[in-house]
Design goal:
Mean pLDDT: 89
Distance between the termini: 38 Å
Largest sheet: 3 strands, antiparallel
Strand order of the largest sheet: 1-2-3
Strand content: 5-15%
CATH class: Mainly Alpha
Helix content: 40-55%
Length: 370
């Protein structure tokens, strides 16, 4: 007998405020209707009613798990609109922070996935490593979850040699401990049974639904903005783009696992090439007085910037009418497209499999409904 079931938004495995209107027959899901609008904040309209630099703290909250990714995305787009050149030191320092943020995001994801699948030990270990990295972020940027360290034209404060050394030592530590965490999951038969062959996304499905990021690359889509449309200094570092073809939950785990190691390599290369010099453009927008001299008004025009956020392609489009406020701000996050597959992926799956599917899509609902 078919029964309606409300799954979420309070259920811990929905990773925020996802509400699924399910129809089930015993333990089998017959249909799913996702509702992702429970954290709607009107971010685009908020941006259009604030001076350009005043939206930066809010941009941090688009993806509250990887705030630096969207902080740069917005600031970089404003810099393109202004035609502003950022000093090389700021460019490389930003890239270091973005890749460490990617590691933090993926380690956090590995922990929450483990908890969802009944592996609390890995969850506790992953949170420990995340806290160590967040301690470094707090030292560099003054915050653990949201930052405001990047400003339009550069950085609020320089990154010191001691802080760089802390990052380098932490990377060495991660390379030693992460293989043990991976083994604890991959050698667990229950973990593998709940992941392998579950929630298969074919390459065609990934392209039809506009998937990006690890969820798409696990289905054989070789697309990474850092390679296909390089920004910052990604064209000056060597790294591989991990992919798989199975398209199941386990493949999505493998891609993120490998991306952690690639990000460690990118950070090391960036540290080695970090140049000396100014960390802020002469005409950078700052909040320090005199305010009238620190603000610039863009000319009529438009700018578009896409970046490789931890969950996929994040993009911002800004349209200027010559005032201090954007005439139009469009935000495109990867989580909305990734979650659009749920109705198809969850059909005829068991309820516990739905938990694994949601977890491996790694949604963040701040970027899902803008």
């Amino acid at each position: 007998m078919e029964t309606p079931l409300n799954f979420g938004p309070q259920h811990p495995s929905t990773h925020g405020v996802l509400h699924l209107n399910m129809v089930i027959d015993a333990e089998i899901v017959k249909s799913v209707d996702p509702d992702v609008g429970l954290i709607h904040r009107g971010l685009e309209k908020i941006a259009e009613n604030r001076m350009y630099f005043k939206f930066t703290p809010i941009a941090n909250k688009i993806d509250y798990v990887a705030a630096a990714a969207w902080e740069f995305n917005y600031i970089g787009c404003v810099e393109k609109l202004l035609g502003m050149t950022v000093p090389p030191r700021a460019t490389w320092a930003r890239m270091i922070i973005l890749e460490v943020q990617r590691i933090i995001s993926h380690v956090f994801w590995m922990g929450t996935l483990s908890m969802d699948l009944g592996q609390p030990t890995v969850f506790v270990w992953a949170m420990r490593e995340r806290e160590r990295l967040l301690d470094i972020f707090e030292d560099i940027m003054g915050g653990r979850m949201t930052y405001g360290w990047m400003i339009i034209g550069g950085l609020r404060d320089d990154i010191t040699p001691e802080q760089i050394q802390r990052i380098a030592l932490e990377l060495y530590h991660l390379e030693k401990v992460l293989p043990e965490y991976f083994d604890l999951l991959e050698k667990n038969s229950l973990f593998c049974e709940r992941m392998i062959g579950v929630g298969i996304i074919t390459r065609q499905m990934a392209t039809d639904y506009g998937l990006t990021g690890p969820s798409a690359r696990a289905s054989g889509v070789l697309y990474d903005v850092r390679k296909d449309d390089p920004y910052l200094a990604y064209k000056d570092v060597q790294f591989n783009v991990p992919t798989r073809t199975a398209g199941d939950c386990y493949a999505r785990y493998e891609v993120r696992r490998d991306e952690i190691m690639q990000s460690i390599s990118i950070v090391r290369q960036a540290i080695a090439q970090l140049p000396d010099g100014p960390y802020r453009a002469v005409n950078a927008m700052t909040l320090r007085p005199p305010l009238a001299l620190s603000m610039r008004t863009p000319k009529n025009g438009e700018a578009f910037l896409r970046t490789e956020c931890p969950r996929g392609e994040g993009a911002i489009f800004l349209l200027s009418d010559g005032s201090n406020f954007p005439y139009r701000c469009k935000i495109r996050g990867p989580s909305f497209n990734n979650l659009s597959l749920l109705s198809e992926l969850c059909k005829n799956q068991s309820i516990p499999d739905v938990v694994a599917i949601i977890a491996t899509l790694d949604p963040v609902f701040g970027e899902c409904d803008r």
